[in-house]
Amino acid sequence: MKRIEFNLPDSLYDALLERMQSDRTSCDHVVSTALSQCLGKPLHTLFQVSTSAALVEGLYQGAVRVSRLLRHGDFGLGTFIDLDGEMVVLEGVCYRVSSDGVVTSVDGDRLVPYAVVTRFSTEFAKTSQQFNTFSELVAVCDALRSSENVFFAFRVEGKFSFVKTRAMKAVPHGTGLKAASSVQEEFTFKDQEGTLVGLWSPGFAGSFSVPGYHFHFLSTDRKRGGHVLECRAVNVTIDGCAMHEMHVSLPETAEFLQADLSRDPSDDLTSAERNHER
Ligand SMILES: [Zn+2]
Fold first, then answer.
1. In sequence order, which ranges of 147-249 are alpha helices (DSSP H)?
2. Residue range 213-229: average pLDDT?
3. How far does the centroid of ligand 1 lie from the alpha carbon of residue 16, in Å?
4. How far, in Å, from the CA of 19 to the mean position of ligand 1?
5. Residue 134 lies in a domain
């Protein structure tokens, strides 16, 4: 989020105050909505590269460049060609967590096979939140969601007493996601300041998205991260927003165009994305 100061004619200032009062809303909301309409930049659109069904079938070839991804969002997650690492997009920077745990920022020219991003802005927030397990985090976020039928972005920020993540390593061409996730590298971090970048997708979006919650972690010093399997925190802030629009960019590769993507990917996704010890 950016903060700007600008000069406004008295008439517009009065109209702005009137609108804030009549809609019982904030100055931020009125100005953001007006600018979004005037500049043709929709707020809270989910931009997605490829689909979860394609991932499950082992289609990990590059489809969209990181620079294009970042034009559509400053917050999100994804993966890299051949599943070589975990992607975290935070504050407009795309990071890669490699299977040896090293975090690097990613060049704009790099192609990615799957990613989901949005322009994050806070619509709701709760401070002093705590959870002992991933399931408790899910329950806290569930209480903040106003619907089962739109997408949500969640940013969880603060000090985590425990985070367990995994980072995929590159797999041979054609390996399905379930098989690929069985050879993952896992990491545990203690007393780590950082951010969970999270997305929640409705069940009906299962062929496109990972249904339910999907969190990637990035430490404040940008040295640790990965796909979150478990976590614990006693005092973190959770903020988020709902997303009512979705833009999906489908790969143009021959492999994607000819693939059979008719199989329901949900069982393989559940197995690949969750903590195997639970
Ligand atoms: Zn992930």
1. 177-181
2. 96
3. 41
4. 41
5. yes
